[in-house]
Write a structure and sequence with these properties.
2 domains, binds zinc ion, globular, 47% helix, 15 helices
Amino acid sequence: MASLSTLAEAAPLAPALRCIGAASDALLGARGCLFTFHRAALSAEWENLPNRNFYLDLDFLDRLLSYLAAHDWKIVTIEEALERARANRRGDRFVNFSVDDCYRDSFEAVVPLFRRHRAPVTLFVTTGIPDRAMSLWHVGLEHALLRRDRLSLGGRLVDCTTGELKRQAYLAISSRWDGPQATALYEAFCGENGFDPGEIHDAHAISWEMLEALQDDPLVEIGTHTVTHARISSLDEETALREMIGARRRLQERLGVAARHFAFPYGRSGDAGRRDFELARRAGYASAATTGKGLMRKNCDPFRLPRNTLRGDARSCGLAEAHMSGLSGLAARALGRV
Ligand SMILES: [Zn+2]
């Protein structure tokens, strides 16, 4: 059976999906769709990336922003999305884009693209990234694979001469590393192959200087995404609060920004639950976002905002419509994928 994403990529389906969305508005009122992604790359670079689903193709993002304007979707901040959901004005349709973690390309490519479209974008910053206090092992592994045709892993040679071999190696190694040992394994790998983890970090991380340059831009909303990208549900209450409050304090110290919005790392139902939504409220935030698919409607819980993840290979306005119509959220709930 064709998947929803395959069906949605067929161009003629976009108008049908628009009709489904419009029909639901007559019943349910204002409709908001929050999108999230991590990184972005030029089309030519995107093709070669070992972990390319982690990146949006900038050409596609450019097309999607034009598509939204052509179909009367208002692009807003999280702050404005909350106001619009509360106001529930008839026929109101709004979209938000948030970038999680935040890397150098948020500053160099994503914000400039949104500026060109005169549209706002939300940055959910993991403060350990500009603070250089956490390991970006997944980024470093990709960096190494892109730059070498052969790598050494625990004394074994890894052949990564082609794009396909690089993608396979990324998948195999990252799934083996994932967990508490990831940083140590990555550092050993860097040593074995002559890479400097600090240099790789600086080549990819967003810096405080970049964030300072963005903080007064009315098109940039800055929120937080913990200090160390911890899975909040796995932490005891005190540690979870420290991750949430610590990130806000750090932004306040470095930028003088009082962040009002938070996004849970990973963001699925197993990563953030009822206790954690309450902790986000106690930590002083006005909202908290998950990555559960769905739409923002009048009565949605501001501490459990649904967000629809845009994967790199989903380069279709039809698929975006599947999220904006609410169909992908319905399908996810029907399949128990929340
Ligand atoms: Zn994240």
